[in-house]
Each structure stands twice: as structure tokens, then as C-alpha cells.
UniProtKB/TrEMBL annotation:
<dbReference type="InterPro" id="IPR006195">
    <property type="entry name" value="aa-tRNA-synth_II"/>
</dbReference>
<dbReference type="GO" id="GO:0004827">
    <property type="term" value="F:proline-tRNA ligase activity"/>
</dbReference>
<protein>
    <recommendedName>
        <fullName>Proline--tRNA ligase</fullName>
        <ecNumber>6.1.1.15</ecNumber>
    </recommendedName>
</protein>
<dbReference type="GO" id="GO:0005524">
    <property type="term" value="F:ATP binding"/>
</dbReference>
<dbReference type="InterPro" id="IPR045864">
    <property type="entry name" value="aa-tRNA-synth_II/BPL/LPL"/>
</dbReference>
<dbReference type="InterPro" id="IPR023717">
    <property type="entry name" value="Pro-tRNA-Synthase_IIa_type1"/>
</dbReference>
<dbReference type="InterPro" id="IPR033730">
    <property type="entry name" value="ProRS_core_prok"/>
</dbReference>
<keyword id="KW-0547">Nucleotide-binding</keyword>
<dbReference type="InterPro" id="IPR002314">
    <property type="entry name" value="aa-tRNA-synt_IIb"/>
</dbReference>
<dbReference type="InterPro" id="IPR036621">
    <property type="entry name" value="Anticodon-bd_dom_sf"/>
</dbReference>
<comment type="subunit">
    <text>Homodimer.</text>
</comment>
<keyword id="KW-0030">Aminoacyl-tRNA synthetase</keyword>
<keyword id="KW-0648">Protein biosynthesis</keyword>
<comment type="similarity">
    <text>Belongs to the class-II aminoacyl-tRNA synthetase family. ProS type 1 subfamily.</text>
</comment>
<comment type="function">
    <text>Catalyzes the attachment of proline to tRNA(Pro) in a two-step reaction: proline is first activated by ATP to form Pro-AMP and then transferred to the acceptor end of tRNA(Pro). As ProRS can inadvertently accommodate and process non-cognate amino acids such as alanine and cysteine, to avoid such errors it has two additional distinct editing activities against alanine. One activity is designated as 'pretransfer' editing and involves the tRNA(Pro)-independent hydrolysis of activated Ala-AMP.</text>
</comment>
<dbReference type="InterPro" id="IPR044140">
    <property type="entry name" value="ProRS_anticodon_short"/>
</dbReference>
<dbReference type="InterPro" id="IPR002316">
    <property type="entry name" value="Pro-tRNA-ligase_IIa"/>
</dbReference>
Length: 593
């Protein structure tokens, strides 16, 4: 292939687009890769489309290599399957809905679990047909609340989604591992820094889920990693290690004390230091207090309840972790004044374990942070205005209805894997989700009744895995991770061309030599972007080559008179004079290296 700058449909721009904040977004627009059509909706221009197609091909090759088979679903989908799975309503404002001329409901597919499940149900009926993995590379639609950074988070975007179908859990595990390995090969090849994090499995519980995050400061996801071992997890998925339970023999009995005007933890700690100094000599801290936060919770089936979270007073409840813990479709808010009023045993600002628990008059389900283990000693509300209890011991004086791990995760918290043994601590970093692999289990097969006959002629529900990657997001992430002050700077596997050949000046001989080099490179299977524009200054051509970001730049110009051309490495800026007669071999070697 030879792309000629004289005819290529591209216009590089000097100014940043007004709506762009993220560097990759600015450069993809300025270098002529994408154009905005509407908020979060982009047109792929020839250069951009070439990169997108290369990313897709890398993914396709690895999917094919694990025996997954490509098919293609429509983007315009009927409502019924999404009603059956509950997602027509669950998605809320997140999907594009439309009606046909008869008034029937349709949606633009945000993801295709339902359709994949139904097509397998349609065609297969026996365990002998499984395992099966099928995938598509297709345009998805989500009415994202905050589309941003160009194609990084679009409302229309490309996704590769694959699904595995197995008769049993061991089969699912094997399909999952195959996809995981393929994803590692894909991300290694795409050429950006990534980390595999344990993700939260949501309401499905127990099932395994991992995300591949690009390590980018512009990412919207916060994850934590261990300072010592290779543990990494989404903040939602961090399991707080519980300390070992301790004996409470010999601990003093609990005692309620007057703590007037101490509705906040800070005022309480200050008052304790003054009125009840600790016997061990150290000062009281917020972590010595047990804070009880009450929420009103509404479940998807309409059921409501009050739930209290008891956690060390130096931590807030992380609402994202609570959301993940409560499960899909569950909504919650702090208990309202009216709900407080309806529960007179709850004393706002002084709520303690004494009033909490399903068996108490207020009927509040009481869930404890994992740090609140048997034998731990707390200062907490005495359920009387202006009073707290000291030396209240977990296991001896109170218990919860269960545990819940929704306290905020902080830098320096012990690593759940090696914190106890090696002292590893968590540190947070930013990333963006590039891929997600997920053991779905039987959720969709149950909802849509996908069953096959097993070896004994018995109907069994199929178990599924789902595996997604966003090729369009990947283009932005790769650009973001590789660009420099001069412009885009593509890794070789995804660059829109292998070589950017620039002919400078007005000399006929220069253009003739460049033309010959382009033709010979092309004959060797090298993709050439050839700047053959006759009346454009060398300065403009070099600037364009820099911003477009093809990894190797060959300049044919003045030095041709001495029989040499210049070969530049776009990334390092290294320049080399190469004999014109050897340049084709030289470039082929560089490109194939
Ligand atoms: P995010 O948390 O970033 O919104 P998600 O959890 O909604 O992502 P999935 O539903 O798991 O994403 O979709 C699979 C893949 O599709 C993601 O890993 C990502 O690469 C891509 N993707 C999802 N939403 C978008 C989007 N709005 N624009 C571009 N790519 C997207
Ligand atoms: Mg996800």
C-alpha cells in the first residue's frame, strides 16, 4: 500500500479542538484521525480507521487462535430479550431506545449477552455441541452520562465481545483461562502498560471477574496495587483483611459516660482525651471509635429496609463499594429525618450497637466492618443524647447481623495477600478499563432458559463467560500512552503505516528517487505513507510527519546528491544517513525487527 499525502483525505490542524482536554483527544483530531459528529460520537477518517482496523485485527487473530468463532449481530435490537433479563429497566437512561413505525420498542445494543444466549438456544440442544466460544467486533451504543476524551469514552464505540458456553463449572473455568491468556497476548501486542486487577463480581457473587486496565493518569478508574507482591484490585473489589480475634478476658466492663456536645468524631476524640485519658498513655484516635451509619435501602423488587454499617470512626463508607456490595439495581441513601422519627430508639449522632440489629425495636439490619472482630474494644454511641459507651467489646457486648466490607480503602492499608506476612501495603493509581473478563455463570441462561441435555439425558442450564475489549477506546489509550511533545507516536503494530516517506525540495530527481523507494518498499509488503506534495515546504512536511506519528520517517532531499537519504526514528529522534541504494533493505529490516 502507498498512501499519498497529495490525495489522502487528511487535513492536519494547528489548533487544539475547543472541547478537548486530554492530549490524545487533541492529537487524534489535529492529526486528522477522527472528527466529532455529535457529543461522544466520532467519524473515523482514513488514518484513524487504519489504526482501528489494526487493533481489531490483533484482537481477531487471538480470538481465532483460541477457537472462538466470529459472527455479527445487529446493533438494532428488539426489546423482549432485554425485558426477560431485566436489563430494559435496569439500564435506565444508559441506553438508546427507539420505536418502529408500528410503535414497537427497540434499543441500540449496549452489550449483547441476551442475543448471544438466544442464538445458542436457537441452534444448540446437547452437551455434545459444547464448549462453544463465539464473538463479534461490533458497534455499541450507550448514552454515557459523561462522554469524554474523544473515543476514550464514547456514546457510540466499538467492542469485541465474546461469550463462552459450557455445561459445567470446570468447563467455564477452562474457557475463562483461555480468554485470559488470549487477552494477555493481545495487550502485550497493543503496546501499552496495563495491569490486571481483580474486579468486583457484583450481585452474582463469588464468580470470578478481572479487568485489564491501561495505566493512564487520565483514566477514571482508581485501583490499588501492593507495594510488595503482585496483588492489584479495583477499589470495589478490595477485601479488607480481618485481624485475628482476641480474647476479652480481663477487659474492663463497658461503661456509659457523659460526652456532651460530641456529635462528631473529632469533638468526641477531643472530649475523651480531656475527660477520660487512656490508661496506656497514648491519645485517643478516631480509629478507636465505632461509627454507625444508617442507610435506607431499596431492592429491585421494591422491598425496602434500613441497614446500618458499623466501622472504625476514622473511615467513611465508600459509596461505590457499598453499591457494589449491595448488588445491581439496589439504591440507597442516608436515612431521612422522617425515617429517624419513625424509629425513636435511634438517637442521631449517638447511635450505638444497643439500638441496632434486626431483633431490636428499630429493626435495622446491622452489618460490621471486617476490622470489628471479636475482642476489639470500642467507644461508640450509647443511644442517649450526649453519651457514649467506652470499653464496648465486640463478641462480648455486641454482635452484628453480618459483616460488610465497604469502608474506604486508603494508601498504606495492609495488602490482603501479603500484608500480614511481608508487610506489603496498598497504594492507589489511576487507570482506564480496556478489557473485562467475567464468569457470568447462569444468570442469562436462567433468565432466557438456555438448557442442553447432558450425558444422562437430563436438562442442564448452560454456564457462560463474557469477555469484552474496546478497540476504539484502545486507539485512544495507545495514543495517550505513547504520544510526546511533537505529536502521536504509534507503536509499530498499530501505526497507520510502516514508513512515512518525505520528499523535500523542488528537485525532480528527489521525487523520482522517492517514488522508486516507495514502489520498492510497497513491493516488499511495507506500508508507505508518501508525502509527495510538490509545493509544500519541508518544515510543514516534517511537522506533519511528527504529529501523524508513523514510527519510521525516511527523508529524501538535498543529500541525495551525495547518494544518501535520512532515516529517522520517530520515537527516539535518532537520525541515520543511509546510502540511497540500500535504503529499501534497511527500512525492511527496521520494520520487521
Ligand atoms: P467503564 O467502566 O469504563 O464504563 P464498562 O465496565 O462499562 O467500562 P464493559 O461493559 O465491561 O465496560 O465493556 C467492555 C469494554 O468495552 C470495556 O472494557 C471498554 O474497553 C469498552 N467500553 C465500554 N464502554 C465504553 C465507552 N463508552 N467508550 C469506549 N469503549 C467502551
Ligand atoms: Mg466493566
Amino acid at each position: 500500500m502507498i498512501l499519498r499525502m497529495s490525495t489522502l483525505f487528511v487535513r492536519t490542524l494547528r489548533d487544539d479542538p475547543a472541547d478537548a482536554e486530554v492530549p490524545s483527544h487533541k492529537l487524534l483530531v489535529r492529526a486528522g484521525y477522527i472528527r466529532r459528529s455529535a457529543p461522544g460520537i466520532y467519524t473515523w477518517l482514513p488514518l484513524g480507521l487504519r489504526v482501528l482496523r489494526k487493533v481489531e485485527q490483533i484482537i481477531r487473530d487471538e480470538m481465532d487462535a483460541i477457537g472462538a468463532q466470529e459472527l455479527l449481530f445487529p446493533a438494532l435490537l428488539p426489546r423482549a430479550p432485554y425485558d426477560a433479563s431485566g436489563r430494559w429497566t435496569e439500564y435506565g437512561d444508559g441506553i438508546f431506545r427507539l420505536k418502529d413505525r408500528k410503535g414497537d420498542d427497540y434499543l441500540l445494543g449496549p452489550t449483547h449477552e441476551e442475543m448471544f444466549t438466544l442464538v445458542v438456544k436457537d441452534l444448540y440442544s446437547s452437551y455434545k455441541d459444547l464448549p462453544l466460544s463465539i464473538y463479534q467486533i461490533q458497534t455499541k451504543y450507550r448514552d454515557e452520562a459523561r462522554p469524554r476524551a474523544g473515543v476514550l469514552r464514547g456514546r457510540e464505540f466499538v467492542m469485541k465481545d465474546s461469550y463462552s458456553f459450557d455445561v459445567d463449572d470446570a468447563g467455564l473455568q477452562a474457557s475463562y483461562e483461555k480468554h485470559r491468556d488470549a487477552y494477555i497476548r493481545i495487550f502485550d501486542k497493543l503496546g501499552f502498560e496495563y495491569v490486571i486487577v481483580k474486579a468486583q463480581a457484583g450481585a452474582m457473587g463469588g464468580s470470578k471477574s478481572e479487568e485489564f486496565l491501561a495505566r493512564l493518569a487520565v483514566g477514571e478508574d482508581t485501583y490499588v496495587r501492593c507495594s510488595r507482591c503482585d496483588y492489584a484490585a479495583n477499589v470495589e473489589a478490595v477485601d479488607t483483611p480481618a485481624p485475628a480475634p482476641a480474647s476479652y478476658d480481663g477487659l474492663p466492663a463497658a461503661h456509659a459516660e457523659q460526652t456532651p456536645d460530641t456529635p462528631t468524631i473529632d469533638t468526641l476524640v477531643a472530649h475523651l482525651d480531656e475527660a477520660y485519658p487512656r490508661s496506656d498513655g497514648r491519645a485517643w484516635t478516631a480509629a478507636d471509635t465505632l461509627k454507625n451509619v444508617v442507610f435506607s435501602v431499596r431492592h429491585p423488587d421494591g422491598r425496602t429496609e434500613a441497614v446500618a454499617v458499623g466501622l472504625p470512626g476514622d473511615r467513611e463508607v465508600d459509596t461505590k463499594r457499598l453499591e457494589a456490595e449491595l448488588g445491581e439495581g439496589v439504591v440507597f441513601e442516608p436515612l431521612t429525618e422522617a425515617e429517624f422519627a419513625a424509629r425513636p430508639t435511634l438517637t442521631k449522632g449517638y447511635i450505638g450497637p444497643g439500638a441496632l440489629g434486626e431483633d431490636k425495636p428499630a429493626g435495622v439490619r446491622y452489618l460490621l466492618d471486617p476490622r470489628v472482630v471479636e475482642g476489639t474494644r470500642w467507644v461508640t454511641g450509647a443511644d442517649v443524647h450526649g453519651s457514649h459507651v467506652l470499653d464496648l467489646v465486640a463478641g462480648r457486648d455486641f454482635t452484628g447481623d453480618g459483616t460488610i466490607d465497604v469502608g474506604e480503602v486508603r494508601d498504606g492499608d495492609p495488602c490482603p495477600v501479603c500484608g500480614a506476612s511481608d508487610g506489603g501495603v496498598l497504594e492507589s493509581a489511576r487507570g482506564i478499563e480496556m478489557g473485562h473478563i467475567f464468569q457470568l455463570g447462569r444468570k442469562f441462561a436462567d433468565a432466557l432458559d438456555l438448557k442442553v441435555l447432558d450425558e444422562n439425558g437430563k436438562l442442564v442450564t448452560v454456564t457462560m463467560g463474557s469477555y469484552g475489549i474496546g478497540p476504539s477506546r484502545a486507539v485512544a489509550a495507545i495514543a495517550e500512552g505513547t504520544l510526546d511533545e511533537q505529536g502521536l507516536c504509534w507503536p509499530r503494530h498499530v501505526a497507520p503505516a510502516d514508513v512515512h516517506l518525505v520528499a523535500t525540495g523542488k528537485d525532480e530527481a528527489v521525487f523520482a528517487a522517492a517514488e522508486r523507494i516507495a514502489t520498492e518498499l510497497h513491493a516488499q509488503g511495507v506500508e508507505v505513507l508518501y508525502d509527495d506534495r510538490p509545493k509544500v515546504s519541508p518544515g510543514v512536511k516534517f511537522k506533519d510527519a511528527e504529529i501523524i506519528g508513523v514510527p519510521t520517517i525516511v527523508v529524501v532531499g538535498r543529500n541525495l546528491a551525495e547518494g544518501t537519504v535520512e532515516v529517522r526514528d520517530r520515537r527516539t529522534g535518532e537520525r541515520e544517513e543511509v546510502a540511497a541504494e540500500h535504503v529499501v533493505d534497511h527500512v525492511v529490516r527496521v520494520v520487521r525487527a
